Amino acid sequence: MSQSRGNFSGRIGLILASAGSAVGLGNLWRFPTECGQNGGSAFLIIYLTCVVVFGLPVMVSEFMIGRAARVNVGRAYDVLSPGTPWKWTGRMQVLTPLIILCFYNVVAGWTLWYTGAAAIDFFPTLAASGDGKVFTDFFAGFVGSWWKQIVCLITFALLTHLVIVQGVSKGIERASKLLMPGLFVLLLVLVGCAMFMPGTADGLAFLFKPDFSKIDSGVVLSAMGQAFFSLSLGMGILTTYASYFRDDADLGKSALSVCIIDTFVALLCGMFIFPTVFTTGIEPTAGPSLLFETLPSVFQQAFGGSHVLAYVMSLCFFVLLVLATLTSAISVHEAITSYVAEQFKLTRKVAARIVTVITTSFGVFCALSLGAGSDWLCWGDKPLFDWFDYVTAKWMLPIAGFFISIYAGWWLSKRIWWTQMTNSGTRRFPLFGLFFFMVRWVCPIGILLIFLNELGVF
Ligand code: PHE
């Protein structure tokens, strides 16, 4: 094992870092709404099944590949299967995070701006100044301003950069151990407050009331897609992180812990968002408009009676968003930086600098494409920002997931499976046969179906 690459020092560190990657905007702006609109707990049962049947096996496969190869994801497949075209699966998993980081930093910048606005208590002023549309206008005004977006984007990119240059245990692990507990505490405070609101019963009913009539093949496929995105699969991140796991780390149990944490956080987000939204009678939305237009206004209405409570809830929420995006951005940055450093034989500092400069530069264009540069940075009906999102989420992630499971199920030797899953025979892995079957058959077929569904084939 190469000691110079750095390692996670222990079990908690690696689980929190991987969970930090998984817990992100997907938990906050997609899961609760998908769950509420697609049959409540009926969707939840299907989502949990997808996590167990697809998410867990693909996550374990990524972990195995990373720890067996002990190099960055771009080279991992060359190391395990030299001289084969599998190397392209690795290269693609460097390109995907590279594209993702460009637009992810832009959204991350928004979270900073809103945290600032919450901190100076700007939202009550805004709410007092007009109708419900003021929050939509505020968001549009911010996205339309090139300098505000660029300042926030660069600030966030620098924050991520500072963590990355510190290395694996002193940077990523330490940041995760600090940020993730902070995130849990904030989330619990928010859920705690949301449990005593007039809309609590309706909100929880929206989220949990089972409605099996809403379940059709489209819902099943979207649950699968959500599980994949939310667990950060197919982006090279988990393979990169696993290359820093110690030899005695239990891959199966670690993957299970990450899946449980990610799902638990997604549920808690729903348990806070819907009671709050239902208290004001506003229609729940999804995506950026939920986080940046609906919720800031909802906080003011729902807690308007108590200024202090409205202030605390807004601030907690946006700090929570910053923490969730930061731990995800760190993981994406690391997947690219470790490749650049090892492939071009650079120090971590120089590699990180190159990655930060390149992704921030493209990020500036993504940010401009939504506002000031929307006339020259749009192709077809999509701004550059949407293109980056579309190409990665709809194409590159499922394609990578498909090839990862084919590789692990059909190509990776049984010996590597056994060494990695039992830590060379020192641990038991009771469901080996079932797990292998899932990776070999169920995952590739399922992922192919999601892919075709996303492309509108069904
Ligand atoms: N798993 C993340 C989420 O749920 C997705 C993600 C991770 C996106 C890292 C970008 C970067 O939001």
Description of the structure:
With 458 residues, this protein is mainly α. The protein has one domain: Amino acid/polyamine transporter I (Up-down Bundle). The protein is built from 19 helices and two strands. The protein has helices at 11-22, 25-37, 41-69, 73-80, 87-119, 122-128, 133-144, 146-165, 168-194, 200-208, 217-230, 237-242, 251-280, 288-302, 307-343, 348-370, 384-411, 414-422, 432-454; strands at residues 378-379, 382-383. The chain has a two-stranded antiparallel sheet. β1 (378-379) and β2 (382-383) form a beta hairpin. α3 crosses α17 (384-411). The longest helix has 37 residues, at 307-343. It is globular. The N and C termini lie far apart (47 Å). The chain binds phenylalanine. Residues 21-22, 24-27, 100, 104, 229-230, 232, 328, 331-332 line the site of phenylalanine (PHE).
Key descriptive features of the protein:
binds phenylalanine; globular; Amino acid/polyamine transporter I; 19 helices; single chain; 458 residues
What's this, in brief?
This protein has 458 residues and is mainly α.
Structural class: mainly alpha
Helical content band: over 70%
Per DSSP E runs of 2 or more residues, the count of β-strands stands at: 2
Characterize the overall form: globular
In whole angstroms, the N-to-C terminal distance is 47 Å
Number of helices: 19
Small ligands present: phenylalanine
Specify Rg, calculated over alpha carbons.
Answer: 22 Å
Give the biggest beta sheet. 2 strands, antiparallel
CATH topology: Amino acid/polyamine transporter I
If you average the pLDDT, what whole number results? 91
Q: What are the segments in which pLDDT stays under 50 over at least 5 consecutive residues?
A: none
Number of domains: 1
Q: Tell me the strand order in the biggest sheet.
A: 1-2
- The CATH C-level name is Mainly Alpha
Order of helical and strand elements: HHHHHHHHHHHHHHHHEEHHH
CATH-derived architecture: Up-down Bundle
Strand-residue proportion: under 5%
